[in-house]
Specification:
This protein has about 150 residues and is mostly helical. About 55% of the residues lie in helices and about 10% in strands. Helix 1 runs antiparallel to helix 3 and helix 4 (about 90-105) packs across helix 5.
């Protein structure tokens, strides 16, 4: 507990002061105002979902099915509640790097191969995570504006 924190009591029981907590799937922090830890949690959630579907991504299955599974299972895990994120350049790079690694894994491409990220994206044709975040953020903002007009 910091020196300037005042203890809070409910029914003569002191409430524990925590640095951060997870509520409805999103991490909140009382000290760290950046979303770096939340973005790292989302990347980890994306990799967890990716590993769960490893048989599809590593199997001899068409790219179309792999793309559908990625866009419907992995991308939502990576972008859950991203409407509230203020994406920094560093956060965008982290999300894009994680997505590119997943795409290369889907195509069984070793990074040492001189295939560019653009070439990989043309092969997989999956939705770009940064574009998904932007699109959903604008949709969310538009819904807020419509509610204010009512």
């Amino acid at each position: 507990m910091m020196a300037n924190d005042t203890p809070i009591y409910v029914n003569n029981t002191q409430i524990e002061n925590v640095e951060g907590y997870i509520y409805l799937g999103q991490r909140y922090s009382t000290r760290d105002k950046t979303k770096d830890k939340e973005i790292q949690r989302r990347i980890t959630a994306g990799w967890t979902a990716f590993v769960k579907h490893r048989a599809i991504f590593k199997g001899n299955i068409g790219k179309c099915l792999k793309r559908q599974v990625y866009n419907s299972c992995i991308l939502p895990a990576m972008t859950y509640v991203e409407e509230t994120w203020a994406l920094t350049t560093q956060a965008k790079k982290k999300l894009a790097a994680a997505q590119t690694k997943m795409e290369r894994s889907m195509l069984n491409i070793i990074y040492r191969n001189s295939n560019t990220n653009i070439w990989v994206r043309e092969k997989t044709k999956i939705t770009d995570v940064i574009e998904q975040v932007r699109r959903r953020k604008w949709t969310w903002a538009g819904q807020g504006i419509q509610q204010n007009r009512r």
